[in-house]
Amino acid sequence: MNEKEKTPYVVTSKSYTAVAINAASKAGEWIKSRLGTVSELGIKYSPQDLVTEVDKGAEQMIRRLILTHFPHHAILGEEGVEPGPEASARALQEIQDEEYLWIVDPVDGTTNFVHGFPFFSVSIALAHRGEVIVGVIYDPSRDELFVAEKGKGAYVHGNRMGVSGEQELAHSLVAVGFPADPNYTLPINMAAVQALAPQVRNLRAGGSAALHLAYVAAGRLSAYTEIGLKPWDIAAGALLVAESGGTITDTVGTPYDLSVSHIVASNGKIHEALTGVLKEAKATGME
Ligand code: IPD
Ligand code: CA
Ligand code: CA
Fold first, then answer.
1. Which residues have CB under 6 Å of ligand 1?
2. Counting atoms of ligand 1 from 1, which one is nearest the CA of 229?
């Protein structure tokens, strides 16, 4: 075989964003078609940390679609990493210096998917030398596609998104999460819930970190905070929030990067007040 025959055929002329949109929407449609069909429920890090054949199948589909266009790019996908916080931190460390790194959560909100609660999403980000440059989140239940490109804004169905205008916690709708690690991260999130509930208009816990971030970007939530997330929960949504004029940091206010797992994402105006409440309640996860 000569050199030319050995080189894989690469489909050209597709932008990174077009590939991310194609992969997220194709996988999302397939996931939706599998609702109610889960036959085997796998347990990962804890009895609350679920995985199904749909999570694995969707990740395979997304990997194949990405590699068709960009065979030399690296991919960090949730289902390719051992469960637990140490393994995911290690996996990120090993791969984060790659020039182009795709970060994939094939089903964000698996528990919702399993129960038929229509709030789950596909999250795909592309980082260039550690900085997220494309973020796509697709909600198949509502057929909503959220897209952001670094420096070019964030859009839902082609309409530019902007964060909400609340200036005070008392007028804010804030999302929280209940992670699948009952020993370390759950009690810290509970402390945050306890401290925030009396100070905000109300709390929501939808069960998809990626969609919570998309909703902050779209101005439907004033903020979202959760301790103990993984790179694939946050990467795409972080760009959506930033490109919509919001703020995304860790729980002590340090700007977001791929290694951040304790996050606060907000409309910017209530950011300090929110991190202040977490600090006061010793609920930053960094005490
Ligand atoms: C989970 C969801 C959930 C959040 C958990 C995540 P998964 O992701 O985003 O909202 O509270 O911390 O692990 O496991 O459904 O991909
Ligand atoms: Ca997730
Ligand atoms: Ca997932």
1. 105, 108-110, 177-180, 207-209, 226, 229, 233
2. 12
Which ligand has the nearest atom to the CA of 233? 2
d(CA 47, CA 133): 35
Count of other CB atoms within 10 angstroms of residue 252:
14
- Record the tokens describing residue 203, joined without a space: 């709390």
Query: Ligand 1, closest atom to CA 120?
Result: 15
Give me the average pLDDT of each 10-residue run along the chain (287 residues).
60 83 98 89 82 94 96 96 92 94 98 96 97 98 98 95 98 95 92 98 98 98 98 98 98 98 98 98 96
Model pTM greater than 0.85?
yes
Which domains are present in the chain? 3-160 (3.30.540.10), 169-280 (3.40.190.80)
Q: What are phi and psi of 7, to 5 degrees?
A: -70, 125
Residue 207: the pLDDT is 98
Is there a contact between 147 and 17 (Cβ–Cβ < 8 Å)? Answer: yes
Q: Which of 233, 262, 263 gets mutated to test ligand 1 (max ligand atoms within 8 A of its CB)?
A: 233
From the alpha carbon of 112, which atom of ligand 1 is closest?
15
Q: Which helix (H) or strand (E) holds 22?
A: helix 16-33
